[in-house]
Amino acid sequence: MPATRLLARLLKASVAALFGTVIAGAALAAPTQYPLTLENCRESVTFAAPPKRVVAIGQTQTEILYALGLGDRVVGTAVWFSPVAKPYEAVNAKVKRLADNDPSFEAVLAEEPDLVTAMFEWHVGPNGIVGKRDQFAKVKVPTYVSPTDCVGKDNSGAGDGVRTQMFTMELVYRNIREFGQIFDVSDRAEALVAELKAREDKAVQAVASLKARDVPVVVWFSSRDIKGDGFMAGKNGVPAYILSKLGARNIITTNEEWPLVGWESIAAANPAVIVTVKMDRRRFPADDIEKKLDFLKTDPVASKLDAVKNQRIVIMDVGATRAGLDTVDGIEALAKAISGFGLAP
Fold first, then answer.
1. What is the pTM (predicted TM-score) of this model?
2. 99 beta partners
3. Where do runs of H (alpha helix) occur along 93-246?
4. Who contacts 162 (Cβ-Cβ below 8 Å, separation ≥6)?
5. pLDDT tens digit string along 6-48?
């Protein structure tokens, strides 16, 4: 085939492929048609138009909104575990913080929201301590709860709920895409999902040769009493997902999200690595990372653990343990730490 004809065919094929990609991208980012109805955590929620005044109860929901360029729609936030991510400091400084922890129903309504979004069902849900969804519905305020807290998860009992399925980042991506639909910014949502997927893939590839197969690990979030039982990561939550990416083994085998576990039980499993969570929240004494570290060094039981004696303690930012934008950070941080401990093959 003459070179000129071959070149023409290649150019034609390239243009066709490019055109197909553009059309596919346009389809993914099609404008939202209102009224929009979504199935969200066992309830239908309808939006007549893009919300203009949003109260975000939960740091992950707030930061996703900021990442989508919707900070100017957020009129109130609550439930903060750590400082806002640096890229969003400027926009967050302009937003009213209703509470560090749990806002009241009245405080939320005082901001006249046309959407209330929550990170956890125990804030806004059937037994919501801020408000039940039907309470908000009665005053014509739509509610949206992150699917990361209800898909494959039962929150009907006390505590932080029970996960019947392993968390995956696909639930975060669903949250982002549904915000894209609700606010008619699906193009931004798809771009953010693509960026996060690329980061996750890169993190997993970076540790592929360092997988700590079956290394026993425990993740300690906090404790009501510094000398009492600890809230440890259950087998299906976000930290468990991080461990699964590294091939490490969570010594906690319950489906509860953050079960209370005694240190005698932890000692019996004798983890090779202890991950301790650092946060700014001060709901419980053990929220303080320095108190956690002091306990591990001085407690008669904890101080005898191999992880403590061999100084295999990893400090992980709380953002990495939540279902949100920072989960991939946890994969990167723990992989680096385990590699440094010489535990990876």
1. 0.85
2. 78
3. 105-109, 133-138, 169-182, 186-206, 238-246
4. 153, 154, 155, 255, 256, 257
5. 334 433 444 344 334 433 443 457 899 999 999 999 999 999 9
